[in-house]
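User
Take a look at the entry that follows and flag anything odd:
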Amino acid sequence: MAELPPASPPQRQRQRRTARPMQVQLVPVKVDDITAPFYVRYDEFGAGTWADAHSHRLGHLNYTPHGTISMETADERFVSPPQYGIWIPPGVEHSCYLQHAAVYRAFYLQPELCAALPQRSCLLKISPIVKSVLADFNQRGVEIPSTPQDLRMAQVLLDQMCGSEVQGSYLPDGQTEALQEVLDALKQEPGHRLSVAEWAERVHLTERTLARHCQNELGMSLGEWRQRLRYLRAVDSLEHGQSVQSIALDLGFSTPSAFIAMFQREAGVSPDQFRKEFLVSTE
């Protein structure tokens, strides 16, 4: 990831990427000269923060206990809610973008420590232990673990990452123009209530063909993709103190209880519990 400085507007890395507010560009943080086994970084970024493609000699886990983060490599685009982190192996070029303000954590490892970790960029499930150790390091201002106790804690982080559940992109892009047109429309207005058949008609496909594109390109149905999108938007809205009722209305749910049920399926906790667990205890 990167550190703050003045800069010029970003270049569009993908033709289909939606327009984004141009506020602050990040310049790659200088970690390549670090010789310690581990390095921990903390920061807070405002909405619209972005960084162009860059790479680090060290591998690193990117985690936002508050808000969501998007990162792109040459092959994939990742959007990560608070219960996941984005793993970037050593030397992999990546860019990042934060649509909303977010608290940021990064855990860097020397290349020789990354052998047991995925060799491709991916999402890693953030366990309560990982969350707690990073929060403890942050509270004590530990950037380079050096005491025997802190080195053991850093090793625990590595062990947890090696055993973590691996997932591809949480909210993948489509590969065909018709499907991406549908996804872009949903990103602009997650509250759309059109059926798959109605979306198919809009992009001049049959319902069956659109459904097949979703399974082949996204690995899930359009309904599941939309649910993930609405969940990510809900996470950011909860972070900004919006009420459950107003979030449900904005995201097109018929009742707050329907929104709560969706959120609980996705996060494993209710919106109120999520506020307490992710948006309070991680400070």
The CA atoms of residues 196 and 223 lie 8 Å apart.
